[in-house]
From TrEMBL:
Pfam families linked to this entry: T2SSF (PF00482)
Annotated protein name in UniProt: Type II secretion system F family protein
Top-level taxon in the UniProt lineage: Bacteria
Membrane topology value: Multi-pass membrane protein
PANTHER family: INTEGRAL MEMBRANE PROTEIN-RELATED, PILUS ASSEMBLE PROTEIN
InterPro entries assigned: T2SS_GspF_dom
Signal peptide start and end residues: none
Residue ranges annotated for the Type II secretion system protein GspF domain, each copy included: 180-308
KW Methyltransferase (keyword) present: no
Source organism (scientific name): Ciceribacter thiooxidans
Principal subcellular localization: membrane
Amino acid sequence: MNIPSPEHLTIALSAFAAFAAVLAASWPYVFPDNLTARMRRIEGERERIRVRERARLNARVRPASLRAEPRKLYTAIVDRFNLAKQAESGELVERLHMAGYRGQAPVTTFLAVRLLAPLVIFIVGLIYLFVVMRPDLSPVLMAAMAAGMGAVGYFAPTIYVKNRITKRQQAIGRAWPEALDLLLITVESGMGIESAFRKVGEEIAVQSAEVAEEMMLTTAELSYLQDRRQAYENLARRTGLDGVRAVVTSLIQAEKYGTPLGQALRVMAQENRDMRMSEAEKKAASLPPKLTVPMIVFFLPVLFAVIITPAVIQIMDI
């Protein structure tokens, strides 16, 4: 048996080392890393989606401005009938703010529409009853029916605003725990409260435009109002949510006594998350009573018809 000499062994090992070096150098080109390329594409796609959504949000939000002027017709109606007195108490303005309407233009529009809606609905009702339907009723009774529809039109703007408030509060309540988590992260990273509000408003805009609007408006008020407490109280007043009021109370106490804000935000985020879960459980628990009447009205008659019809057919055949 021939034993390779040390020279041959050295040459073989050198050749293997050279082959391994060439293989290691050419491996990324021969067998590219598809996972890394895919991760880079995903990262780029996520950034493009974020830019697109922010552009879409800005395009949607930009037309709504505090400086928007009401229509001249609405302004003339409000001035002619002196309707501005109805908004002097501030309750109407506060409710419009809770619905997401800012500035003087929505107040003027609301007052004018509330005056015009009964008249317009009354005229439309008269035309529909006397021209389209033509029922066999006396003209006085049809005029009374049209007047009733006009009276309902007076409350239509208020009902619309209440509906907007409810939907806006639901949207804010769904996204508020996540906003608190982001606020906690930014505060614990060393940001000031104004920078934290601004950062959270920018990041959460894709998920909830309502929360982003409130955050950015609070940031502006923190920058310009002399009393920072007033900015926090305005946030609670505009939203009208208990979870937001609790956070505002913590922020005011932190501003006044210098207490750490991180632990309070962590607790508030968990409490708001529990409140959101309890609301979902409450809605789930209320489904059986709500389904009772539709089941009785729509399901049971069909079931009885399916069960009884074959017996009725057999009896008729006999």
